């Protein structure tokens, strides 16, 4: 088993360590350390393999199908500079690489995928 949080609030509860692989993938400023206190707490609770990444130019809904709708209607927000197609591609590449690496044991796929995209920032491992 593995888990990924795509720019959401994390509720680990703080009662026990989470020893499964966990990916924190944040949009823009929200994904940076210190921006969301639940991510800081979750990071401390994660004792298994973990990665903390953020995507420059992404908004909260960039990791969903809504990104395309917001882009078409012009309501994505000024902070969203990453296009919906690129956001979808980056999300797919990072999540698939994380799952391939952790569940299929294909080697260091996530680090390779993160290095290939200049908009991806690595905050923790």
TrEMBL record:
<dbReference type="InterPro" id="IPR029058">
    <property type="entry name" value="AB_hydrolase_fold"/>
</dbReference>
<protein>
    <submittedName>
        <fullName>Lipase</fullName>
    </submittedName>
</protein>
């Amino acid at each position: 088993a593995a888990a990924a949080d795509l720019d959401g609030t994390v509720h680990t509860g703080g009662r026990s360590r989470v020893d499964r692989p966990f990916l924190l993938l944040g949009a823009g400023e929200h994904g940076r350390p210190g921006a969301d206190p639940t991510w800081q707490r979750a990071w401390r609770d994660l004792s298994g393999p973990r990665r903390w990444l953020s995507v420059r130019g992404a908004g909260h809904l960039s990791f969903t199908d809504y990104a395309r709708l917001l882009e078409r209607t012009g309501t994505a927000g000024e902070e969203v500079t990453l296009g919906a197609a690129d956001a979808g591609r980056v999300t797919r590449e990072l999540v698939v690489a994380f799952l391939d690496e952790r569940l299929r044991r294909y080697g260091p796929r996530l680090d390779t995928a993160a290095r290939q995209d200049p908009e991806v920032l690595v905050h923790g491992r």
